[in-house]
Amino acid sequence: MADISITATAVTAALAHNVTTKPAGATITAGQTVYLDAATGKWLLADADSATVVARTPAGIALNGGSINQPITVKTAGEVTMNAVLTLGEAYFQSPSPGGIAPRADVLSGDLLVLIGFATTTTVLNLGITAAPVLL
To answer: How confident is the model at residue 136, as a pLDDT?
Structure first.
């Protein structure tokens, strides 16, 4: 399997709860997972096999895209609607591809196992980001 395929223009959050806006520290596309770089206060792409521990655990999913220093709004909890073909009830995890979301089978040995959330429909991902304490 591969990362879920997300059309950036389809990413929405029905409620404005659990959102935060900060500048991008890299080019980010709506639907990608991000973490907040403490040194710069900017969003960067999360990556399950990053050498940097903080980069392995996303803070949420970008609701819009932008380039460096442009504002990015991130949903940190709750429901995010995507065009992606999700499997109802399936758990989705931080991918070893920067910013990606993948089914469990795509999280590899040496990656931090980070649950992003569960599909409540075939298009809605309910965020509940939780990191396991060890690498696979």
So the answer is: 54
